[in-house]
Records
---
Amino acid sequence: MRNVQILLLIVVVLLSCEPKKQPILGDTEWQRQQNADFKDASKSPLTNKDRKSFRSLDFFPFDSTYIVSAKLKVTPDTPFFKMKTTTDRLSEERVYGIVSFTLNGQSYQLNVYQGKENLEDPEYIDYLFLPFFDDTNGNESYGGGRYIDLRIPESDSILIDFNKAYNPLCVYNVKYSCPIVPRVNYLDSDVKAGMKNYIKK
């Protein structure tokens, strides 16, 4: 009986010494998913060294003000052009359309882009790419601008959620080749939503 008690005590001690799994941080489902992906070795853009110490990305607080309904004006038959990236690679993109919306009391227009490679992939054939600059770049957010993923809508109305603005992957690892945000896609406003600049901790 004594041996059983000793064995149980050893098991309890060993279990208590196991490292506790850290909860996934984030105030919204999207933020938690981003943090989960960055922790996942099969998905994370981080180097193995940085991933081991990673806990959470920095985000602006969620703000429904930055969810806007925009009007999409499609620009059919626009030619593909070679968008510059952070490496020698050139990304073949076309201006799919122009989105018009009001944010913080101001009216804006941005180009949305469609990648040539995506047209060959059924999963991404309706994918649109919205890169943009704003006045937080270089201070609270990454200096090179941020991205938002969109899907082609069934009408001329499209929802843009700036709370889901994310950094180019090359911010975290130089092995990635990231499209450079076109200067035309500048918002003369502080977009305090989405990801903040990445600082190693």
Note: Residues 3-7, 10-19 have pLDDT under 50 and may be disordered.
---
Amino acid sequence: MTSKILLVTGDAAESLEVFYPYQRLREEGYQVDIAAPTRKRLQFVVHDFVEGFDTYTEKPGYTWPADLAFAEVDPADYVALVIPGGRAPEYLRNDPDVRRIAQHFFAGDKPVAQICHGPLITAAAGVLDGRRSSAYPALAPDIRAAGAEFVDGAAVVDGVVVSARAWPDHPAWLRAFVEVLRKHAPVT
């Protein structure tokens, strides 16, 4: 039986932050299941950094089907969790099932990778208190309000939790997360 990783996301997730870990972790030999509020075709977005803009811009991205709904997820079936960013975490954090899922992984000390706005979910789940976490820099106040230390870094490792700022951090973020997986949840 292949080790499974759960990726939680929804509409308006950042395309690169979904597909890069999805493909990279499959390359490592994991089965990656995408969970969303419902089973449907999701509309992702592309966030880019344009000179002269105070923040990122957003354009339509790829579409992709969700494998299962959050309510269907038994987190015990998964060895690790990935939480991409984009705007999706802003509304996903309000879903009791996505908070239940995040709480399971933190309570079980299972590997978690979060990037960009993804830590909004773990903050809402109440599992960041006392931790160190990166995120999109504009979220520093949110990370601190959740009781965590905000670290402006490309691959912040706190035990089995690996966080990053945004898609430009992918190489360092996934390199660190794969190291955590190989140690704590190797492919079986």
Note: The mean pLDDT is 97.
